[in-house]
Specification:
Order of helices and strands: HHHHHHH
Shape: globular
Radius of gyration: 21 Å
Structural class: mainly alpha
Number of helices: 7
Helix content: over 70%
Strand content: under 5%
Length: 244
């Protein structure tokens, strides 16, 4: 009967917690982008200024909630990932890294950039709603956010390049390693469905195609349903792993 290295079970638990934090962070990111794009398109399609105002306020509320939610969930994900890397360094003398981690970080950075780009269109929505004072205030705030976002992007590019050069490959396999494999093809399908629906919403927001309003609601509903299905599948797997 195989013996496990002391600490291997702890690593398995840390990895499970990191995966859970990652799923939550990605779900919040995808839901934020889909919600913001949908609210802005509904505001643009309102026939009157009075009809535009509720959706413009809704878009502003979504943006105000999305930014801190994304920051908090991604900070929790980062903290749990660091805990995994520290324990792997202690046991295997090399933390896991590699193309998947690098691609994940680029994807998150792209999500932040897209969220900020959607936020930069808020003044125009308030101008169309005849809320000129609020449009001016948001324009000034966006100038500050744009400078901060540009600086953050430069620092991210430097950090990501340095990290990618230091950790070019994943850690070698270890006979004591409990493994990193994840089960659940249905969850991958749910994530793919959410990503596809959100991409369609963003493409519509960029006026690459013009779906009907009913289709906007349908795509937004598909995004939320797929995210819930992926989260439920992950919860079921966690219960199964706990009882194995």
């Amino acid at each position: 009967m195989a013996t496990t290295l002391p600490g291997a079970d702890v690593i398995a638990g840390l990895r499970a917690h990191a995966r859970s934090a990652r799923r939550l962070a990605v779900a919040v990111l995808v839901a934020s982008i889909a919600s913001l794009a949908t609210a802005q398109m509904l505001a643009e399609r309102a026939p009157t200024r009075e009809g535009t105002r509720p959706f413009a306020w809704l878009a502003l509320a979504v943006l105000a909630l999305a930014v801190p939610a994304m920051a908090l969930t991604q900070a929790a994900w980062g903290a749990r990932s660091r805990a995994v890397r520290l324990r792997e360094q202690a046991l295997y003398a090399r933390p896991s890294s590699g193309p998947r981690h690098a691609a994940c970080r680029l994807g998150v950075a792209a999500g932040w950039a897209l969220t900020l780009l959607l936020g930069f269109t808020m003044p125009r929505l308030f101008m169309e709603s005849a809320l000129y004072g609020l449009a001016g205030a948001t324009s000034q705030a966006i100038e500050v956010v744009a400078l901060a976002g540009f600086a953050a992007g430069v620092f991210f590019a430097i950090w990501w390049t340095r990290d990618a050069l230091v950790h070019r490959t994943a850690s070698p396999s270890d006979p004591w390693d409990p493994g990193r494999q994840e089960r659940g093809g249905e969850r991958r399908a749910a994530w793919a469905g959410a990503a596809t629906a959100t991409f369609a919403l963003v493409a519509a927001r960029a006026h690459l195609w013009e779906p009907g309003t009913w289709l906007l609601y349908a795509l937004f509903g598909v995004t939320l349903a797929c995210l819930l299905a992926a989260w439920a599948g992950a919860r079921r797997q966690g219960v199964l792993v706990t009882h194995e």
